[in-house]
Amino acid sequence: MAGGTVHTRSRTFLPPSPSDFDALLDLSKFLEHHTEPAMLLGPDGEQIPLPLEVYETLTQIVDAMKHHRAVTVAPIDQKLTTQAAADYLGISRPTLIKLIEQKKIPCEMVDGSRHRRLVLGDLIDYQSKRSAEHRAALQSLVEDAEETGLYDVPAEDYQDAIRAARKEIAGERKAQ
């Protein structure tokens, strides 16, 4: 890439300092009001359209930084330690190890050691699959509730049923 640097490792960008935050807010407002992909303007006046994916990525980065969150850009083939992978997925390392042993997430062994490395793309695939499973399960619950007419029942009836169930459980505990 002429005149630029290609990064093959991850890089984290922190939200701007308070003195630069106003410029970020201006950019955020601009992006909110202009939903079509923008043009990149060079110092010599040359323009080039931003591809839709780049424009959407920019919008997400600006939104995250506007909410004072750092943003990490990483190649899809980046390898992570089991602890970093667990942190990425928001699960414990032992839970991740179980998923690896159950062959739900692939990993690579580091030559000559017991250490594992996971590819970021595999973690993203796992997340997508789990999200799809969760959406399907939720949809199934909604369909069951609709079929049985649960959405037609007043909230007070649910509250009464919960109270009755709690009393029943309390009575069973006292009997033990």
From TrEMBL:
GO terms for molecular function: DNA binding. Residues 80-130 form the Helix-turn-helix domain. This is Excisionase family DNA-binding protein. Keywords: DNA-binding. InterPro entries: HTH_17 (IPR041657), SinI_DNA-bd (IPR010093). Coiled coil: none annotated. Pfam families: HTH_17.
